[in-house]
Amino acid sequence: MAKLNKDEIAMNLLTSRTINEAADRSSVSTSTLYRLRKQASFQKILTRVKDELFQETMKKAQSYALDSLEVLREVAVDEDANDSSRVSAARTIIDIGLAANEQEHIIHKLDDLERRLMDD
């Protein structure tokens, strides 16, 4: 019997619409997938693969962020665009800025707390 590629199976579970599709793509039975999903060791693999997939997705999204922000700015300043589009674009720009500021503030607080814990 061939050794199961659990990383590939985990990726297929995460990216398939159904468990049957994931089983087909992984060349295993659905009962094998159900059995694997109950195993703590496979749950760790699934979590790791999900985290890796999320990180790759975020890297890709970040690469589009500047272009997207420029589109929003163009809509916000376009005097020919309707008012609701301009307001929506401006609001989105503000929301992005506030969220980034808040995230940076939280990171600084966490760094400060970590330093304090290390000093104690």
What does this structure look like?
There is one protein chain. Helix 1 (6-15) packs antiparallel against helix 2 (19-26), helix 1 crosses helix 4 and helix 4 packs across helix 5 (83-119). 85% of the residues lie in helices and 0% in strands. The chain is an all-alpha fold. The protein has 2 domains: 1-63; 78-120.
- The H/E string reads HHHHH
Largest sheet: none
Number of helices: 5
Radius of gyration from the alpha-carbon trace, in angstroms: 22 Å
| Strand element count | 0
Write the layout of secondary structure elements.
Blueprint: H1 6-15, H2 19-26, H3 30-38, H4 40-77, H5 83-119
Q: What is this structure, in a nutshell?
A:
The protein is mainly α. The chain has five helices and no strands. The longest helix has 38 residues.
Which terms summarize this structure?
single chain, 120 residues, mainly alpha, 2 domains, flat
